Amino acid sequence: MEKSDVPDWVSSEKSTENPSETVILEGSPAVSNQAPEQIYVQGYGGPGMILPQTNAVLALVFGILGLVMCSVCTAVPGLILANGALAITSNYPGHPDQGMAKAAQIISWIGIGLFILLMLFYGGLFAALLLADA
């Protein structure tokens, strides 16, 4: 192998230049001097952070009972408990009960709305029966 076939940077001889000098080769990746962008993720807090308890599970149970069989007798208390749980979870982003409290609030409102529609239907039926007798 001839000396002209070997690149300049490959050499078996020790260089007399300063060894702390940085050698940049062609085709090496460009390195920026800027720090990488930091991404902040909201989570449940650190391992020592204790989140307050909520009544989101009870609110969800009351909301489902109001939707299925007990109507406003349990839907209204479920709505009140869900609003209280949402007030607590809004102060702690990433609280694990936030979704359950929102679901309880929605289900309770649906139960109350169905009760109102049912009362309007029965009221209209009762009025139609009164007008039919007259």
Can you summarize the main beta sheet? none
User: Which shape, going by the Cα principal axes?
Assistant: elongated
Estimated structural class: mainly alpha
Elements, N to C (H/E): HHH
Helical amount: 40-55%
The rounded Rg comes to: 36 Å
What count of helical segments does DSSP give? 3
Topology, element by element:
Blueprint: H1 56-70, H2 72-89, H3 98-133
Helix pairs in contact: 1-2, 1-3, 2-3
Explain what this protein looks like in three dimensions.
By secondary structure, this protein is an all-alpha fold. The chain has a domain of 78 residues. 51% of the residues lie in helices and 0% in strands. The protein contains 3 helices and no strands. α1 packs antiparallel against α2, α1 packs parallel to α3 and α2 packs antiparallel against α3. The longest helix has 36 residues. The protein starts with 55 loop residues before the first helix and ends with a helix. The model has no long low-confidence stretch (mean pLDDT 83).
